[in-house]
Structure formats: structure tokens, C-alpha cells
Design brief:
Elements lengths: L1 H17 L11 H16 L4 H15 L2 H9 L8 H27 L6 E8 L2 E8 L8 E10 L2 E9 L2 E2 H15 L6 H15 L1
Antiparallel strand pairs: 1-2, 2-3, 3-4, 4-5
Helix pairs in contact: 1-3, 2-3, 3-5, 4-5, 4-6, 5-7
Length: 204
Amino acid sequence: MFRRSFQIATILSFIGALAPSLPAAAGMDPAAFINNLGNQLQTVTRSASPEEKMAGFQELFRTDFDVPGLGRFVLGRFWRVFTPFEQQEFLSLFERYVVLTYSEKLSDYTERGGCPRVTGSRPEPDGVVVSSQITRSRTTQPVRVDWRLTAQNGSYKISDIIIEGLSMAANGRSQLEGVVERNGGRAQAILAVMRQQIAAASAR
């Protein structure tokens, strides 16, 4: 019991250490927002334990990502099919799924010394797309990563990550449409499949 309490206290203190670098300081400057995100990613990936790393990623995603908006986009037309209870369950499952899958992808880049280097940006009706490159090593080509930012409450939230031209949001929507198609058009099958995927990802 004491050991578990000590682990929880350590994780909470680690999350507290992230607070000074959260995006409020970045204001409405999209390049500063992404640069600040890169600093946070470096901090999280240097965590001493898997528990601290996962807790740090969860706090980062809740702060910097528009997880509810991203979830509704990914669910697409099936959002209207779900009951309010099913919608809330989906958003809860989706947040856990995003933390597990996105953190794995971003850790793969940043653990090897990579950090987003902003190369430009372009405006959109509800925000901006910031282009960046992540260099994983001296012997490999930089990876192009575009960040779609939506303006919210005086700052930005990430609504999509586009890696080498592949939108993770669009890819997620396509995967869920495939789940429904393979299950006789039953949208509720999405919930069962997500529970299975989360359990499998957590076991790795």
C-alpha cells in the first residue's frame, strides 16, 4: 500500500513539474505552441518509469489536444447513431486510445533525440496548420509532421497530426468505418473493438 502511494505521489509531482511549460505561455503564436509542445514531449519521454511517462502523456493530451472534437470527427456520421450514454463512453474510450497510440508514435520520434522544428505555417478558417520536421538521426531523412491547430479560448488545441501526408484523424475515421462494415453495419461494434484494442495496447 505504501509503495503504491509513493508511486502515485511521484507521478503527481512529475505532472506538476510540467505545469510551468504548458501552452498558456505560448499565447496565440502557433510556432511557439509547437515549440513548447516539443519541450513537453522531451520531458515526458525522459520519464523514469512507464507509469510516469503514461501519466505525463495523458496530462499533455488533455491540455494540448482537442480530444472531444477529434473524437467526434473520427466517429463521423455514427455520432448521431449513438445514444448520449454511448457517446460519452466512446469519448472516454477514445481518450484512452489516443493516449496509448499517439504517445507510442510520438515517443518513437522524440526518444531518439527528435524534436519538432517548425518550418512554416498556413492559416485555415478556424485555426492554422503548422509544418515541422523531426530529425530522428543523422543518417535518416527528417520526418514531416504537420499540426492542425484550432483556436480555443485564447490559445490553440491540436485537432489533427499529419505525418508524411497521412492524417491520423482521417485514418482513424476510416478504421472505424471499416469496423462497422465488418460487423453488419452495427455502429455499437466500435465500442467493443475499442475496448479490445485498449486492452491489447495496455498489455504491451
